[in-house]
Write a structure and sequence with these properties.
This protein is 61% helix and 4% strand. The chain is mostly helical.
Length: 948
């Protein structure tokens, strides 16, 4: 890239060249920060001097050649195109000095061989200047060897009558080790010193204009380039190169510069071309971070004086890397950190941690360095890590907390403290994914059984063991605690005791109630206790829900939700309160609180909390008839935390997905989640009942009523065994009644529905509405109507839209069978509208004969067709048979036996009055409904509405 913004400096050089041509030589010292354009300036002027007829000799000093005697003079003389005798003499002198003279003069005097060689070597240049002007350019003169600097001074003292112009480029960021050179040169009349500063905005604009005519419109704004590059030509050029690499797709728009790979490389170049003290200052500053950029901290980390640290910061600022004591862009800091060797950075991080600790910085600030440091064997390190982990977790910085705890675990040599560290790691990891934290459970269990785990951590351990269904181990830990000591108090001040945990297990794991006991003299496991903690209030709330205390349960749930902050210890209680509102049919309140808590969980970046609340959200949506939303929320819960991290609770979201997809008629999509492994202990929990119920509905919708009945009846068996029969959770009798209806057993279905209604009572519970609908399905149309109308009123009031759609559909069927075609069509349209709103697909059947288009009256005296009713199972089998499937294919497709297929076909033949399979097509509409049975709802729609 062309030289920019250096017109004034070039003018000074040209004037001095004119004086040199006239016989008055001089010395020009060009100083400036690293990579500010000194080299480019010297080369550009060398080209102009050569064009003016002068002999331009150039050399570049290097730190690695600083101990090479006359190394710089050798570059100048051997590149001077001298005549053979002169070149041979110069080479001989250089070789002699290199072989005999020491690298640096001892005792302050020059060796004799050097004193004799300097006049002869400089004499060669003086002789050459008599032929034509000579311009000598030495770049990075601060690295030049001592003997070459003596030659420069020798020449400078003789330039009054010589046509020699000496240009010296020097990095002003280096310590002034050549003070004698400065003093000697600057006192001479023909010597000048110019200092290169950063590019001005005009200079940056010139660089942009030279960037490329084709892309100048999309170049970054000049002020942004000047701010990020600090006027440093190398950094500015790097920003432009990064912009060129990423300019595709900007469509000619000017976009701000974004530092990339070229900028990173440019920063590294600046650092390694700087003095080592400036480089180390940059490293220390980058390690300390912006919160601790005070000069005294940098000095202490480096072990230097404040003045030395201040000089280093000043040099970095002059280079353009810093502004007001900090990096101009975070990419500059990142590149600085990346330029360090890992071992050196680890040492520097350790030193930074120690310095910050000594200055009383917060533990969370200190540990950010301990995490990256080499092992720090100091008594303050482990307590600082543990304190920072606790604070980080309280501040929802789970990653930082886990990082602190990993370092603490790796550096802790105290066997008594190790279990507490692992317990803290488990609690922190649980917030993200319990599966990753489960690795610590065996060691923590051993520590608890040996009495090496504190009360708070033991309580957490029991909860974690229960989460994964390790009930026996949890009870073993509780037994060890009871044998060792009396209940104590947790660090949070709440009452801790095994009795409370056992009482909680009674409700959370009712299938394991046999070994759950409470010591004599204590309240029973199912008895309410004075609530002093959130967990005790939640246990009492679960008991109240099981006892049917509707309003009391609602009040208790609201009390927990209003007075409890979401955290690791309360999230389970809050979920219990939400589920209590769901079970008491306060779906609007449950939805409100669930949304509020979900927003908080998302803001606090806690995936496990988000997943639990998404599962509750799905359960609420399912009851409200928002089937697609329910399936989406449940899948979101399983995506936030994979199934293996859910433990026994995985049954909950899986059940919701299966239930929702089945209700929408998407049986294949519902079958997928059924393949998610559910631990056996899950079926000893309420969520296990929901899983059985959802699977039962899937069996029922797929034409497997016997399998469905097995699941429904098992729900009833488990609930009876556990000692609570809660229809609000699983109305298993009503579900089983639907299975019997699918088998054509109306008597058993009626008995089950009536039994369920007797349990529910005369209230307004949604389960009463569902049970009324199922009971109505066992009656004739005339007696069916009052039950369905009451069911519709209840379900409308409770907001259960899907169940309401089913009731409306049944009402339409009843009105149709009573000959009230107009009313039937109106109810059927309403049922289909509700079904679509819930996510059940619209019917795809053609209007059957006998069902008139909406809005058209039935002609007077029109003959009525006979009504043909096939059960859902019979309809599915008959439809597949009409399409040409064999009995074996039908059995495989519907997951039933060939014998069952034959039984369904026999009944379908009898009802449809056909003798063979080929006649079925003429009796069924294109959608599968029997001809003459179109009515208000085609077969496929009715199947979907009544599938669950």
């Amino acid at each position: 890239m062309d030289l920019v913004d250096r017109g004034a400096e070039l003018s000074i050089m040209e004037n001095m060249l004119g004086s040199c041509v006239a016989g008055h030589g001089g010395v020009l010292l060009v100083s400036g920060a690293v990579v500010t354009g000194k080299t480019a300036l010297l080369r550009a002027f060398g080209e102009r001097a050569t064009a003016a007829g002068a002999l331009f000799l150039q050399a570049t000093a290097s730190e690695v050649e600083r101990d090479l005697p006359l190394g710089v003079m050798g570059q100048l003389l051997l590149g001077a195109d001298l005549p053979a005798p002169g070149a041979q003499r110069a080479a001989r002198l250089l070789d002699l000095v290199t072989v005999t003279a020491p690298a640096r003069p001892a005792g302050g005097g020059l060796p004799a061989v050097v004193r004799n060689a300097i006049p002869q070597l400089c004499g060669i240049l003086l002789e050459k200047s008599r032929e034509r002007p000579v311009v000598i350019g030495i770049d990075d003169v601060h690295h030049a060897d001592t003997y070459s600097l003596e030659c420069v001074q020798y020449l400078a003292r003789r330039l009054d009558a010589a046509r020699i112009l000496v240009l010296l480029g020097e990095n002003s960021g280096y310590p002034t080790g050549n003070r004698r050179l400065h003093v000697e040169l600057l006192r001479l009349p023909g010597c000048r010193n110019i200092r290169l500063g950063p590019l001005r905005r005009r200079g940056v604009a010139e660089m942009v204009s030279a960037y490329g005519r084709s892309g100048w419109r999309s170049c970054p704004p000049v002020p942004d380039l000047h701010r990020l590059g600090g006027g440093n030509p190398l950094l500015t050029r790097a920003l432009l190169e990064d912009h060129r690499a990423s300019a595709a797709g900007t469509a000619g728009r000017s976009v701000p510069p974004v530092p990339g790979d070229s900028f990173e490389q440019a920063v590294t170049t600046c650092l390694y071309r700087s003095d080592v003290s400036a480089r180390r200052t940059a490293w220390a500053l980058a390690v300390l971070g912006p919160q601790a950029s005070r000069t005294e901290l940098v000095a202490e980390v480096l072990g230097v004086s404040r003045e030395a640290a201040r000089r280093g910061l000043s040099a970095l600022t002059e280079t353009g890397l810093l502004s007001t004591g900090w990096f101009r862009h975070e990419a500059g800091r990142a590149a600085t950190l990346k330029s360090m060797e890992p071992a050196h950075r680890a040492r520097l991080e350790a030193r930074a941690a120690q310095v910050l600790h000594e200055h009383g910085e917060a533990a969370t600030a200190v540990v950010r360095h301990l995490i990256l440091a080499e092992p720090v064997d100091a008594p303050w390190a482990l307590p600082t890590l543990l304190e920072a982990a606790e604070r980080a977790l309280d501040g929802d910085e789970v990653d930082l907390a886990l990082a602190c705890l990993r370092v603490a675990r790796d550096t802790c040599a105290d066997g008594q403290r190790s279990p507490a560290i692992r317990a803290a790691m488990t609690r922190a990891g649980w917030r993200v994914n319990p599966a990753t934290a489960a690795q610590h459970l065996p060691e923590l269990t051993t520590a608890a059984l040996e009495g090496r785990l504190g009360p708070r951590h033991t309580e957490e351990l029991v909860g974690h063991l229960l989460w994964f269904g390790h009930v026996d181990r949890a009870l073993e830990v509780l037994g060890a605690v009871e044998r060792s000591r009396a209940p104590g108090r947790t660090e949070g001040g709440g009452r801790y005791g095994p009795d409370d945990i056992r009482r909680w297990m009674v409700h959370g794991f009712p299938g394991f109630t046999a070994p759950v006991r409470v010591r004599p003299g204590r309240a029973g496991p199912r008895d309410p206790v004075p609530a002093r903690t959130t967990r005790q209030r939640a246990a009492n709330l679960m008991r109240a829900v099981l006892d049917g205390a509707g309003e009391d349960a609602v009040a208790g749930a609201e009390q927990i939700l209003q007075g409890t902050r979401l955290d690791d210890h309360t999230v389970t209680a809050l979920v219990v309160a939400l589920n209590a509102l769901v079970l008491t049919d306060r779906l609007d309140r449950a939805s409100f609180w669930c949304e509020a808590l979900a927003r908080e969980a998302a803001a606090r970046r806690a995936p496990m909390w988000q997943a639990l609340l998404a599962s509750v959200r799905a359960r609420i949506d399912l009851r409200l008839g928002r089937l697609a939303a329910a399936a989406e929320s449940a899948r979101s819960a399983l995506a936030l935390v994979p199934p293996e991290g859910w433990g026994v609770a995985v049954a909950g979201p899986v059940a919701t997905v299966v239930h929702a997809e089945t209700a929408m008629g998407r049986l294949d999509e519902a079958a997928g989640p059924l393949g998610v492994p559910v631990p056996d202990p899950a079926f000893h929990t309420p969520d296990g009942l929901l899983h059985l119920r959802a699977r039962g509905f899937h069996h029922l919708a797929a034409g497997r009523p016997y399998a469905a009945l097995d699941d429904f009846v098992r729900c009833g068996y488990l609930m009876a065994r556990w000692g609570f029969d809660l229809p609000a959770l699983v109305p298993w009798r009503t579900d089983a009644a639907q299975g019997h209806l699918a088998l054509g057993d109306a008597a058993t279905a009626r008995a089950l529905a009536e039994e369920q209604l007797a349990m529910v009572g005369p209230g307004r519970a949604w389960t009463r509405g569902v049970s009324l609908r199922v009971l109505a399905g066992t009656l004739d149309p005339l007696h069916r109507m009052p039950l369905l109308e009451e069911a519709a009123e209840i379900l409308r009031e409770r907001g259960h839209r899907l169940e309401l759609a089913r009731v409306k559909d049944d009402l339409a069927r009843a009105h149709r069978e009573l000959g009230e075609r107009g009313r039937a069509r109106s109810l059927a349209r309403r049922a289909q509208q509700l079904a679509r709103e819930c996510g059940v697909p619209a019917p795809r059947v053609a209007a059957a004969a006998g069902a008139l288009p909406a809005g058209r009256p039935e002609p007077s005296g029109a003959p009525r067709r006979g009504h043909v009713e096939l059960s859902d199972a019979e309809l599915r089998v008959a439809t597949l048979a009409a399409r040409g499937h064999t009995n074996r294919q039908i059995a495989d497709k519907l997951f039933i036996t060939v014998s069952t297929v034959e039984q369904h076909l026999t009944r379908a033949y009898r009802k449809l009055a056909v003798q063979r399979r080929a006649d079925l097509a003429g009796k069924l509409t294109p959608g599968g409904a029997p001809d003459g049975a179109g009515g208000p709802c085609g077969g496929s729609t009715c199947d979907q509405l009544n599938a669950v």
